[in-house]
Amino acid sequence: MSHFYLALLLGMTVALGPLALDAYLPAFPDIADGFGIHHSDVGLTLSAYVATLGMAQLVGGPLSDRYGRRMILLGGLAIFAGAAVMVAQAGSLMEMSVWRVIQGVGGAFCAVSVPAIVRDQVSGQDAARLFGLIGLIMFIAPAAAPSLGALMLALGDWHFIFVVLAGYAVFLAMVLQLALFPKLKPRPRATTPVSTLVTNYLLVLRHKTTMRFIGIQVLCFSAMLLFITHSSFIYQEWFGLSNSSFSILFAANIALMATLNLINRPLLRHFHSVVLLRFQVLLQSLALVGLVTVVALDGPFWAVAGLIITSIGFQGGIVPNNMANALDFFPHMGGTAAALLGASQFTLAGGISALSSTFGGESLLPIVASMLACSVGAALLALGAPRAVQREKARLASKRG
Q1: 3-class state of residue 24 by DSSP
Q2: Distance between CA atoms of 281 and 286, rounded to whole angstroms?
Q3: Where are the transmembrane segments (predicted)?
Q4: CA neighbours within 13 Å on the CB side: how many for 314?
């Protein structure tokens, strides 16, 4: 199977997550009016989904190692679709939140299966290139989701959005069953019983090199999530931009991420992914140093916006290179390693973002300083990454010898 064909199918699968998060954002006022609640209370359904999306990966990853990618991924799509139908029929905020939790379980099983499938098929530089292709396809989803949600609202009400999401999950299940799984090269099924899931996680947690890359992922994602959490405050309240201007600037982040993702692919022919990762993390930190400096000196808007777009844009190269290295040392436990990576990313970054709300909303400087602190932590971990990978590969080579 060609990399593009595999990336297209897996990218369509990963897109399910952003669509479930962002497609119904334009419907928040309608949902609030329908339930007779405050607009902000609808955000509980978003938090319920995100929290479950992170934690349920800790279960889905090892189960996919034990029972196979097909069963867990198709099972996740079935759970997602069924819960989406029930969300569409919810009559209260509590009922909707409960079904969103169940939908998050299905979404988590899908999300954790994708990097595990990549690790089953390729490793090293090839994995970094494939993750890059998947990321490039996936960038379309968060950019298009709010517009798609608005279109579905024009065709129906907020219930219709979740009916469409259920239909997309069913469509994905049929496509993957017919076009993906028959063409994947077989992998040996793990014989580890479910009772030793804790042992499997301990193996990953004790692997210092893998945990270094998980730390980089958490901190870089935290820097981006801090911006996303406060983006409306930064652009619309602090600088007084219109909704359309805010949308354009937000889309500029995705555009630069996609561009740097494309540039990263040919660079992988000449440089190791871990070297590119270190370089990109350091450049992101430098951009955030510039951002904090400009904000502290009360600099112009164009400088603030340009440095934000630049720093967030580097995620386009950081993510595929980092994921390839994080999963490289667990060929037979790719699901477990991917689960720990995904769960750590969502729960820890989500916690940092939630904590930032206690000081955000009144001043811009604490927000950008927090972004810089996360990025500096990632840079410190990235500085030693090449040597850590070399040592680990030398250790494995001597062990095999």
Answers
A1: coil
A2: 9
A3: 46-64, 71-91, 97-118, 130-154, 160-181, 213-234, 246-263, 275-295, 301-320, 332-352, 364-385
A4: 27
pLDDT value at residue 74: 96
φ/ψ of residue 358, rounded to 5 = -75, -25
What is the rounded CA–CA span in Å between residue 254 and residue 248? 10
Question: Cβ distance 229 to 338 under 8 Å?
Answer: no
pTM to 2 decimal places: 0.73
| Alpha-carbon span 262 to 70, nearest angstrom | 30
CA 314, distance to chain mean position in Å, is: 14
- What domains can be seen in the chain, in order of their start residue? 1-183 (1.20.1250.20), 195-401 (1.20.1250.20)
> Can you tell me whether residue 364 is helix, strand or coil?
coil
- For the stretch 210-264, pLDDT in tens is 899 999 999 998 898 888 767 767 887 788 887 678 778 877 888 898 889 889 8
Per-residue pLDDT at 149 = 77
Positive/negative CA dihedral, 25, 27, 33, 34? negative
Q: How many CB atoms lie within 10 A of CB 196?
A: 13
Query: Rounded CA gap, 78 and 368, in Å?
Result: 41
Please list, in sequence order, all residues whose beta carbon lies within 8 angstroms of the beta carbon of residue 206, skipping any fewer than 6 positions away. Answer: none
* Per-residue model confidence (pLDDT) at position 118: 84
- Answer for the pair 81, 353: CB distance below 8 angstroms, yes or no: no
b/e string for 155-187 if b means 16 or more Cβ within 10 A? eeebbbbbbbbbebbbebbeebeeebeeeeeeb
For residues 234 and 253, what is the distance between their CA atoms, to the nearest angstrom? 14
The number of angstroms, rounded, from the C-alpha of 190 to the middle of its chain's C-alpha atoms is 26
How far is CA 286 from each of CA 39, 160, 387, rounded to the nearest angstrom? 38, 45, 22
| Distances from the Cα of 220 to the Cα of 128, 143, 184, 384, angstroms | 17, 20, 32, 16
Find where tokens 């030793």 sit: 196
